[in-house]
Design goal:
- By secondary structure, the protein is of the alpha/beta class.
- It is built from 9 helices and 14 strands.
- A 5-stranded parallel β-sheet has the order 4-1-12-13-14, sandwiched between helices. A 4-stranded antiparallel β-sheet has the order 8-9-11-10. A 3-stranded antiparallel β-sheet has the order 5-6-7, with helices on one face.
- A hairpin with a 4-residue loop joins strand 5 and strand 6.
- Helix 1 packs parallel to helix 9.
- The radius of gyration is 18 Å and the shape is globular.
- The two termini are 14 Å apart.
Amino acid sequence: MTRQETVLVASDLDRTLIYSSAALGLTMPDPQAPRLLCVEVHEGKPLSYMTETAAALLAELAADPSAVFVPTTTRTRKQYQRIRFPGPPARYAICANGGQLLVDGVPDRDWRRAVAGRLAAECAPLEEVHRHLLAVSDPAWLRKARLAEDLFAYLVVERDLVPGEWLKALTEWSEARGWTVSLQGRKIYAVPRPLTKSAAMHEVARRTGAATTLAAGDSLLDADLLLAADRAWRPGHGELADAGWTAPTVTALGTAGVLAGEEIVRAFRRAVGAAAA
C-alpha cells in the first residue's frame, strides 16, 4: 500500500459514534425509530449504542485496506476497552485525550514519556488542579471527583445545579495555568492544554504513512482534532454545536443524536472511497 492510498479516520466516541440511552435523541414516533446495536456493557447492563446501519458501515470501514480507523477518546484505557465495535479490532486507539496511544491494545511507552515531558514543561501540575477542583466544588451538586490515567481530572455533577458563574470562574482559573475546561453531559473535565487528540493523531498518521486524515467530534476537547484533520465533521449537538463552532474544513451537520453518528460514519465511508478512487 502506498502513502497516497492510506486514509486515517480518527473519531471521537461518546456522543459522536456511540450514544448512551439518554443521548440517543430519538424524536420520531417509536415505530419509525432505527434499530440499535449495543456496543458497550458496563456492570452487566447495556450502556452505549449505534444504529445497526452505522455499525455495518463502521465494520466495512474497519475492514477496508485503504483506511486506518482510530478510535479517539477522552476515556481511560479501561473505559475504552469495554466497547465492542463491529468488524476487526482497531490496530491503534487514542485514549485519555491523547495521553495514551494503544498499539494492538498495549500502551506505547515512548508516547507516554513524550506526553509527560510536554505536560511538565507547559502547564501546572495535575495535583494543583485537582486540589482546586475539590476546594471550590459544592457537595450539593458534586457526585464524584476522579483522576484519569494520572493525566487529567473530571467531576461528575448534577448539571442543572452547577452555577454558570462557577463554571466560568473555573475556566478562567484553569486557562491561566495552561488547562482547558469542558462540560460534557454530567461530567466537567479539566485537561492540560498540551494534552491533545490531534498530536496523537499525527503520530499515528506518521507511523501508518497516511496521506489523508478524517475526523469527527462533538466537544471542545475535539476542536483541535477537527482542525488538524484534512476533513472533519461535527454533529448537530454538543459543546461545539451549542457554540456554533465550525471551520472551513469542518462540516457542521444538522442531525443530532444517534442518527448523527450514522451520518458521520456514512461520510467517512464516502470520503475513503473517494480518496481510493
